[in-house]
């Protein structure tokens, strides 16, 4: 079996609010479904291979483990599901055993805390990993065009309207067509169907702006760091898997946390002097687009 983006998002959406009474069987079913896919199975195997003993040995009653990375957070989520399956218990019991506590004595509050701390980050982690490796093409999707699309440039963006419009105008100046998803007609499609229809491009610009804030679950709130929106990170991974890193241009505005899996890859700063424009045109030209520098640089 090969997982498609639509199937993955549908499955995760179904797990959006887990009730403590049926969380275990539903999550076991989700893992069994993932393990039928070779790529997803490999990601789960790597998570299970992480040695959690150093952080689990210090946890206890109302003292949850202090994970230091997204990998460890995801591994803890997987550990709890596996433990619940082996011991045939509710997930909240596995959570209690490692010190997770709810806002009250309500079992559902404990389950909600497990969801917030571990399960939602686990779903996001799996989405990022599978996007980076490339989801399978949906049977309902259009077949990929053999000829290169030399007109459309997809712009992935967050909440920074001014930055988005600045990038779009540069793309237009060199005679290309900027694809901004919310500006396209819906035509009765779901968001993911609309995204896939317009993602048939040979180049994507990913605008990383400090729109959200986040931190490791083990950190204090004073350590909140600006970061791009999660949909921006997800779509960046999608395009990396679909058209390759060399056809994805990450444009970073300001100081913000970036996905650790993409560390070491060059991010272009969106500087006020506009040097980023030269770098963008150079990358477009290298990707096979016909570019006239004078249209932008005068």
Can you describe what's shown?
The structure is a single chain. The chain folds into 2 domains: 129 residues, no CATH class; 146 residues, Rossmann fold (3-Layer(aba) Sandwich), CATH 3.40.50. It has 12 helices and 7 strands. The strands form 2 sheets. A 5-stranded parallel β-sheet has the order 2-1-3-6-7, with helices on both faces. It is 47% helix and 9% strand. The chain is α/β, with parallel strands linked by helices and 298 residues long.
Describe the protein's topology.
Layout: H1 5-14, H2 23-34, H3 38-48, H4 53-56, H5 70-87, H6 91-97, H7 107-133, E1 152-156, H8 161-173, E2 177-179, H9 191-198, E3 204-208, E4 212-214, E5 225-227, H10 230-243, E6 248-252, E7 268-269, H11 275-286, H12 294-297
Output the CATH topology of the largest domain: Rossmann fold
Outline type: elongated
User: Largest sheet at a glance?
Assistant: 5 strands, parallel
Structural class: alpha/beta
Q: Unreliable stretches, pLDDT < 50, 5 or more residues?
A: 139-146
Radius of gyration: 21 Å
Number of helices: 12
Major beta sheet, strand line-up:
2-1-3-6-7
Q: Give the fraction of residues assigned to helices.
A: 40-55%
The end-to-end distance, rounded to whole angstroms, is 53 Å
CATH C-level class of the largest domain: Alpha Beta
- Write down the domain tally: 2
**CATH architecture descriptor of the largest domain:** 3-Layer(aba) Sandwich
The H/E string reads: HHHHHHHEHEHEEEHEEHH
Overall pLDDT: 84
Number of DSSP E strands:
7
Strand content: 5-15%
| CATH homolog superfamily of the largest domain | Toll/interleukin-1 receptor homology (TIR) domain
């Amino acid at each position: 079996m090969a997982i498609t983006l639509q199937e993955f998002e549908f499955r995760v959406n179904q797990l959006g609010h887990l009730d403590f009474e049926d969380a275990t069987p539903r999550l076991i079913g989700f893992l069994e479904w993932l393990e039928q896919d070779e790529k997803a199975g490999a990601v789960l195997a790597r998570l299970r291979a992480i040695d959690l003993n150093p952080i689990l040995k210090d946890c206890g009653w109302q003292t949850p483990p202090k994970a230091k990375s997204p990998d460890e957070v995801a591994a803890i989520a997987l550990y709890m599901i596996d433990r619940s399956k082996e011991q045939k218990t509710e997930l909240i019991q596995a959570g209690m055993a490692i010190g997770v506590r709810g806002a009250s004595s309500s079992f559902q509050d404990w389950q909600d805390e497990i969801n917030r701390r571990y399960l939602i980050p686990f779903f996001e982690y799996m989405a990022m990993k599978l996007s980076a490796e490339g989801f399978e093409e949906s049977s309902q999707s259009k077949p990929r065009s053999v000829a290169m699309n030399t007109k459309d440039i997809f712009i992935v963006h967050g909440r920074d309207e001014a930055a988005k419009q600045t990038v779009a105008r540069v793309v237009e100046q060199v005679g290309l067509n900027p694809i901004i998803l919310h500006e396209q007609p819906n035509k009765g499609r779901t968001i993911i169907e609309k995204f896939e229809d317009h993602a048939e491009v040979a180049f994507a610009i990913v605008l990383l702006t400090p729109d959200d804030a986040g931190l490791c679950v083990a950190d204090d709130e004073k350590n909140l760091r600006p970061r791009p929106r999660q949909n921006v990170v997800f779509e960046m991974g999608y395009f990396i898997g679909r058209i390759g890193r060399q056809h994805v241009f990450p444009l970073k505005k300001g100081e913000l946390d970036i996905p650790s899996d993409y560390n070491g890859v060059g991010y272009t700063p969106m500087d006020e002097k506009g040097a980023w424009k030269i770098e963008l045109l150079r990358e477009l030209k290298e990707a096979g687009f016909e570019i006239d520098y004078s249209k932008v640089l005068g």
